[in-house]
Amino acid sequence: MALSEDYQWPYPDPARLQPFAETGSAEQIEAHTAAIEEFFSARYGLPAVLMPSGRAALAAAFRYRQLNRSNVIHAPMWSSHCIWGTIGVGSNPTLSLEPAPDAMLVVHKWGYPVTVAGRYECYIIEDSVDSCFETPESFFLNGGTFEIISLPKVIASYCGAVVLASDESLRHFLKQEQGNNPVLGRINSELKHRGAMGTLPPHETWDGMEHANTSLDLNGLNDILAKLANLDLNIATIRSRFDAVKIGPLGKHVPKTAAGRLPCVVPLPVKLFNDTALDGVMVRNFNTSQVQDRPKYEPCYLLPLHFRMADNVHNDITGRLTETLRV
User: What is the Cα–Cα distance from 275 to 244, expressed in whole angstroms?
Assistant: First the structure.
């Protein structure tokens, strides 16, 4: 990945994508789905359910709770457009916590744990889409009953998300929904594939009906299976780079982390650095309080840790940030 790109996550490598071709039988799709779910269930000790995307998993969770236009769902400021779009298509998004919403999406941004200080009588959804979990120790930090992990943001597949649920009724609901619309699943899989290949025209999009999608096709499943080994590669790369950053000059400015949960980037407040242009280094807002209902948003430089960022680029950004850090 180059600095000219959005490098928050380890996006798929077009050179490693297989051509989009196979249709696949229902039996193949069922077997591949089961293999992927078994991989994550064994890894984290909880039943896993495979979904087409994090967006699709969120929408299914809303349906499970029967959240609709009469309900209000809270999400934090600066959340991604996929969160706002998924909430807005069937309910009402809000930044306010007064009055208490019907549901709260707690976003553990880039893998950093976020807590909720107040007590709200509402449904908690833990959004860990870009957390790279070594172990499940930090699941359900706010009393939620499931975690959503986006596979493109963790293993660099072009599609897929895993829901790890302690709620058996939710897992049963998701399994009933899973695979209910294979035609839409294949259409969206091809659009996602073209997007990952860089051949999707600007006027086309894969996410228009993704909130209704519950299906993956054989192309997407094959890609996920081929990328499962990237989980350990990503964990090892992040762990090595993160440990080095923490003992260096930038270390005292690293946000707090949680056991077993690794971040994909390090956000470092821009105010900590000299007024020197750092070409190509991304700036995004981050809640440095890490408390959702007591936020403190600050513009931050992003130092990438994940495996899709080459060592020389990671080292270059680390060096430039270190050189411009105010003493």
Answer: 25
